[in-house]
Amino acid sequence: MVIGIPRGLLFYEFDTMWRNFFKELDIEYIISPNTNKDIYKRGASIALHETCLPYKIFLGHVDYLIDKCDYILVPRIGGYSFYDRMCTRYQSTVDVLQNTFRDRDIKILPFNVDYTSKETELASCIEIGKKLGKKRRDSLRAYIIARQAVNTEAQIKENNLKNALKKDNSKVLLVGHKYNTMDKYVGEPIEDMLEEMGVDLIWATDMDRHDADEKSKEVTKTMPWTFNRELIGSIVELSDEVDGIILLSSFDCGPDSMANEMIIRKIKDKPILNLVVDGQEGVAGMETRLESFIDIILFKKRRILND
Ligand code: SF4
To answer: Residue 281 has what pLDDT?
Structure first.
């Protein structure tokens, strides 16, 4: 029995939990490789034309895994609390995959989290364990250990964030969904370019999620999407400590286009670069825009220091 985990979409939210959960239950799993041109092309050839880039990439990862495992683990996330709203694409993954890959006999292991239907992470893990022949108490124990690993990781990230902010280097806050910023095909080339330009990257998603959500209320009380609210809260908290902000989003993303518009209108005292990545062109042409942006923030910094 092998579980396939697609390295796309909400993978970066749950990978630590899933790896630990399956390891504790002694269940074998494979994770699709880092996104590359081939995986993007696989997904783009299957997806409907207007599908957003991360969803195309996600479909490419599923396509890669489908003949290599017994089940594909797929998150279907509706929300963690009454106030949570998620992009509808997170909720539709299971149905979309079942229809898209119906000729290839896809077997899906859903990871359902939805406050409104009382589906919690724990209940979902116990259900997954049951399907894979594991006892409830073993799944419960595995979940508790997996959750502890997630909490430890979050604490480490927060500490790293605090240490990174203390450095004297020029700093840029990178704001975007983890499946964009952490993806090898989408986010990493941008990270590499900035590193080469001698700028330290600060990751908005390293901030404590609850604190970020609370902070977002200083700018908006009506933004519906939880992840976008958390990103906005990170900007509110961290913008005074960085020299510039990069908004990284992908082509055809409704929530990001609305949230980014709001950020650009409300955050007036910091240079902001709005980067929209398109799968076809990747990061080609972005180097020039990044260089100009970095020139601007260094110029501003020098002027402030000289005043
Ligand atoms: S939030 Fe945007 S990028 Fe993410 S899945 Fe939804 S539409 Fe796609």
So the answer is: 62
Cα distances (Å, whole numbers) of residue 83 to 17, 255, 304 = 23, 16, 41
Question: Tokens 């696989």 label which residue?
Answer: 42
Token pair, residue 297, equals 């923030």
- Can you give the pLDDT at residue 82? 77
pLDDT at 15 over 80: yes
Dihedral (CA of 276, 244, 292, 167) sign: negative
> What mean pLDDT is predicted for residues 236-257?
93
Single pTM value for the model: 0.93
Query: What residues form DSSP beta bridges with 83?
Result: none
| Closest CA to ligand 1's atom 6 | 87
- Residue 69 Cα to ligand 1 midpoint, Å, equals 27
Distance 89 CA to ligand 1 centre (A): 7
Above 90 in pLDDT, residue 19?
yes
**Cα 152 to Cα 158: distance, rounded to the nearest angstrom:** 10
Ligand 1 site, residue 253, Cβ cutoff 6 A: yes
pLDDT of 298 reads 87
Structure tokens at 138: 């073993």
What angle separates helix 286-306 from helix 188-196, to the nearest 10 degrees?
40
Q: Is 54 in the pocket of ligand 1 (CB under 6 A)?
A: yes
**Domains and their CATH numbers in the chain:** 2-149 (3.40.50), 167-306 (3.40.50)
